[in-house]
Amino acid sequence: MSHAVQNYDPEQHVDTEQQGASDHQGNLEAHGNAAQPAGAQPGAVAPQDAMVMATSNPVTTQERSAARHQQRQQQVKAKVDARIAAATTDKGLLLVITGNGKGKSTAGFGVVTRAVGHGKTAAVVQFIKGTWECGERNLLRQHGVEFAVMATGFTWETQNRETDIAACQQVWQAAKRMLQDPTIDVVLLDELTYMVSYHYLALDEVLSALAARPVGQHVVITGRNAHRALVEAADTVSQIENVKHAFDAGIRVQQGIDW
After folding, report:
1. pTM (two decimals)
2. Three-class SS of residue 197?
3. How many CB atoms lie within 10 A of CB 191?
């Protein structure tokens, strides 16, 4: 072992480092005090030093904003993940799409189209608008979707309550058959709410048919003024409000957009 190592004194080494640090701090203070303007408090950061410190800070405002955004989204994700984990039940859903706004039937047909796109079977019962050419019917029939159509048109056109009730009852028989068929995954009862409101169909009979359907079958009901009993029975209810409608401005209905 060398003589230098043999004479090494750890305490003396520590004292030497402390003295060096003290001298370095003293130099910094002397330099800082010399650079400060008259009247500045000892130890205060000089303006030019503050500028250097600010510009040398590696965390920018944009980075802080990004970090806060990430933190918020992590909290949102945790809440969403918790709700997803808590949803453990599978069942056939009853969806009610109501309100005075445009798009209720469109939304209902959207559900049917989505289901067919996933290889599921679907069937549609159309009340009220049956005399119109229907773009959705033209398309979906090509993909095996069964339609039962009331085919009487709007009630203000028919002006015959007895005829309307008879037509409704006839198409309702097809609807009940569909609601009993376990091979049909989705049933759309388009504009059914009017049949209940006009007392063309008994509410209790409709509720019983819905309750007795196959466990995994989904049903979509559309139309204005959905009866509160239908709303209460539903799993999901959407209310479409009218904000603005082109027809109110004198614009005619458009093929491919309105029908």
Report:
1. 0.71
2. helix
3. 21
